[in-house]
Structure formats: structure tokens, C-alpha cells
């Protein structure tokens, strides 16, 4: 079992009640809600700046069954400005910048997410693929279309959470320098 190692950059807000397991780095400005889970099972997870990881969101770094027991330890790199909404489960091996994972969506460990993608509420994506930039997946049949606009950053919500969460939850102290 991997040893827990948390690197938290200044400006990040990580609630102590969140479930963190493994080698995890949290970038500046990122917010991790109290009941979010981040599990680095297959190797380290590096979360970029200004990401929002909401209640009961799960980010799990696990290898596909056919890649287990290999010597290399892959790193899951999550870019900046991503939003992981309530109760989503994300196992993607790579996530770019400015993506939105809506409530209760599931992204399997064979799906690579590029930049500016939106995975709609309740959508389940498991087939091996690389999602092109600015793709939206939506509806009960997980329809795919190209978006004209990129997802809008959650600046106001994040500013509000930065003020409110420390009043009601214990916050992990930053332990890395810029």
C-alpha cells in the first residue's frame, strides 16, 4: 500500500475531512471539499491550480487491469481550472485544463480528457478514447458534440468558498513553496 504524502501549495484550500490517500500534490488556488476523495492507487496525482473538487467527488488513479503489475509508475496529471462536481467519479489517466465533470458522471480509466471538455450529469464514458478539445458529452445516451465556447471558470463560486469553508471546516496547512 502506498504511503500518504501530501504536497499543498499556498493558496490551496484542502479540508481535513476530505479523504486523501497516496502521493498527492495540490496546486495553488485549488479547493477540495470535506467529503471529496482523491486516491492515488497506481502512482502520484498532481492537481493543477484553481481546480474545484466538490462534495463526494472521487478522483481515483488506478491502472487498467491489463497494465497492472508493470514496473513503471505513471503519474496522473490534472491540469488547471477543472471542476469536479458533486458525486462524479473520475479515473481518467490524464486530464487537461478547463474541463467540467458534472454531477454523477463517470469517466473510466481508459479515457483521456484533453482541454475544454464537459462531461454531462450522469454520463458514463468507459470506452478507450481521447476526447478532443471542446467536446461536450450530454444526455441519457451520452451524445457528443463540439462546443463553440470553453467552459466558464467558476471564479465567483471559488472566491465564496475560500471565504466560507475555513469558517466551518479544518483546513490542511500548505507545506510547499511556489
From TrEMBL:
GO biological process: mitotic spindle organization
Subcellular location: Cytoplasm, Cytoskeleton
Alphabetical list of InterPro entries matching this protein: DCTN6, Trimer_LpxA-like_sf
Gene3D superfamilies membership: Hexapeptide repeat proteins
Keyword Cytoplasm appears in the UniProt entry: yes
One MF annotation (Gene Ontology) recorded for this entry: dynein complex binding
Record keywords: Cytoplasm, Cytoskeleton
Cellular-component GO terms for this entry: dynactin complex
Family: Belongs to the dynactin subunits 5/6 family. Dynactin subunit 6 subfamily.
Functional note: Part of the dynactin complex that activates the molecular motor dynein for ultra-processive transport along microtubules.
Record's protein name: Dynactin subunit 6
Origin species: Sitophilus oryzae
Upper classification of the organism: Eukaryota, Metazoa, Ecdysozoa, Arthropoda, Hexapoda
Gene name in the database record: LOC115888418
